[in-house]
Fold ABC transporter.
Amino acid sequence: MHIAIHDVAHRFPGTEYLFEHVNYRIDPGQTVALCGPSGCGKSTLLSILAGWEKPTQGTIEKHEIGRIGWVFQNPYGVARRTALDHVVFPLLAKGWDRNDAEAQAYEALDLFDLGYAADRRFSALSGGEAQRLMLARAVCSHPDMLLVDEPTAQLDTKTAHSVSNVLGNLAGQGMIVIVATHDPDTRNACGRVIDLADYAPSETQPEVTETEAIQIEEIKTEATATEATVFEETSTV
């Protein structure tokens, strides 16, 4: 099992490249920090690795990677469900017995110092607790590859340090862990680092392709039509 990045570059229509010539291979048992300044494409590269976004250039090779877990920067949950319910759910979906699933879920909650909040509704959790809950749920689902986007953004310094250490040790469970982060603690806790600043585009940018030019013109046309409609409706009031 591994994931390999082969000469990947990416940009969105009408914009400059975020990064280019990224080459990297990640194997199980490795935790990789994905770093770089704001706007350099960290979340975009996570999307490419997950298969949600196709790179402008290059390819992503996934070998024997079946299940991919993703923890977003902003936690989402069901307001009336407890923290334990959220962590148990992926195991029940796999067909686990409820008692066995709960035992595993409590271990995951304890891993992120959330055992005390097992019976607390999601709506009653703080932002930091909700973020850690999403990490616990992702770990409990045992993905082959875990993608984590800014896991410590909503945490206080002490809790962030603890979570960083846990993330740094997760690869010991046999999964590939890739963490997009600005946090020096999280970066230092990871065994390897991809710094997108090292893959910043050259000063000479390629011209906009014909397809991209058409897409840009379509967006401009739609925007102009919308403005005209709003103006007409406003004028008739």
In short: The two ends are 64 Å apart (CA to CA). The beta strands are 2-10, 19-26, 31-35, 57-63, 68-71, 145-149, 176-180, 192-195.
